[in-house]
Structure prediction request, 329 residues.
Amino acid sequence: MKRLSLFTILLVLCLCSCGDRNTGLTVYCAHDAVYSQEILNAFSAETGIAVTAVFDTEATKSLGLIERIRREKTSPQCDVFWNNELLGTVQLQQEGLLQPYQGTGYARMPAHAKEPAGHWVGFGARMRVVMVNTERSSHTAASTLDGDLSQFAMAKPLYGTTLTHYAALWRELGAELPALHADRLAREMNILNGNGAVKQAVAIGAVEWGWSDTDDYFLAVDSGMPVTAFPARLPSGKTIAIPNTVAIIAGTAHSAEARQLVNYLLSQKTELALANGRSRQIPLGPVPADALPEALRPWQAWAQEAVSLEDLSDARARCIAWLKAAPQK
Prediction:
């Protein structure tokens, strides 16, 4: 019997490895694994397409995955990017790293939630909220950031959804924002490490109220904490809805499978699964009102009042430059 050479054995192993890669998708996912993995598993069960998910860490948010996609641009390892925000996805589009696609999912989303050519599409949004401890405060939707702010908290504005919030403020207020922020710090505004920390501080009554997101708010509600919330609004009166986004990576060798996953994530089925999960993501496409949790129905209406975030890149860059240069509490 003829013996195989070491080269032949290595070649066979390599071909087998490449074959395994060609049978599935690699998804870089910034949405929490506890919510997203179940959806990706359901997609695999329904289509037979294997999905390997690579998640970010709480410390790096989605930035680590974005940097990884940039590093791999000459040899993409990611097929589909599921981001939990918009602005980082827009940056990848501007750098030519995303492949356009307009499928069935693209068609069901409103114009403000998708890039015209289909480089990215939004779905299942969180909203910025004013969260209130009902046992300590009587703040209402008309409340402002006037007076003593020792009982108000927000996350560091250089990161996450608070950065998007501040970028939207920068676009409306421009150079007035740094002075306004400094004034609020002088009035003892509390700056905490993240939205989760703000949620916890409000829920236990360490502060009376604060800015957070709907997903954190609903986690507090589910834990039986004495809280309520209403939309945080910009000076223009607009709300802030921050969608998940999905995009196909330019240069993927699995375009057909990637398109199937994009359509699946943008489907009514997926939006309802996210809406009925613990994080209560707000559908952006049409869904039957009676299929939503009752507590989420007013938020779906408020999400229709959201400001467009698509052209926020310049304001975000200016805001980051200021925040990095300015001393923070």
About this structure: The first helix runs from residue 6 to 22. The first strand starts at residue 24 and ends at 29. The radius of gyration is 22 Å.
